[in-house]
Amino acid sequence: MAEENKNPETNEQTNSTPEQGGAAENKQPEIDYKKEYEKLLADQKKLKDATDKACSEANKYKTQLREKLSEQERLEQERAEREAAKDAELEKYRTESRVNGYKSKLLECGYDLETATSMAAELPEGVSEDFFAKQKAFMDAKAKSIEAELLNKQPKLTSGSGFTGADADKAEMNALRKNFGLPPIK
Q1: 137 three-class SS
Q2: pLDDT tens digits, 103-125
């Protein structure tokens, strides 16, 4: 049973079978990369031209609209645009000021700079001073508990004479004698 295959480029039929060598069946169609590249460049140029045309039309309509508006309407519109820009800038500065204030309060609580910066940006507007006072109290209590725990882990001090250099030499000699199985020096 012979299979008929079509060549994808020429739509010609070939009558090769795997039993007959099948070289035509395994052959991949060659791609002309230069033509593909030129086609992509042409498509890109068409898109750029269309974008440029749309932008120029938008500018033309905007100009026509401005010409149609009366002088007073134009002045009112410009004033409203300036006011909106001013409001946006003011809001930006208020947010920046709020974040910097929160960051400084978090630094006072004991946070490192990176953590304080990221947390300050995440805190919502209107966080009360009470929040930061409670946070500082918590951090101070936590530090005190850690310090108390570390003090409890320290070995107890013994009363009596201090440890001198001769005592250190004697202790070292006794440790060495113990390693050799000898009795300690008294």
Answers
A1: helix
A2: 888 888 888 888 888 888 888 88
Sequence-separated (6 or more) residues with CB below 8 Å from residue 29: 7, 8, 9
CB 17 within 8 A of CB 2: yes
Tokens encoding 176: 């060495």
CA distance 55 to 50: 9
Q: What is the rounded CA–CA span in Å between residue 28 and residue 56?
A: 46
Q: Copy the structure tokens of residue 131.
A: 């929040």
Take residue 173 and report the two structure tokens written for it: 């000699």
Q: Which amino acid is at 20?
A: Q
Tokens 């645009």 belong to 81
Cα separation, 186 vs 172, in Å, equals 13
Is 13 in a helix, a strand, or coil?
A: strand
Give the global pTM: 0.39
Q: Which residues pair with 14 in a beta bridge?
A: 5
Residues in Cβ contact with 7 at an 8 Å cutoff, skipping those fewer than 6 apart? 13, 14, 24, 29
3-state SS, residue 66: helix
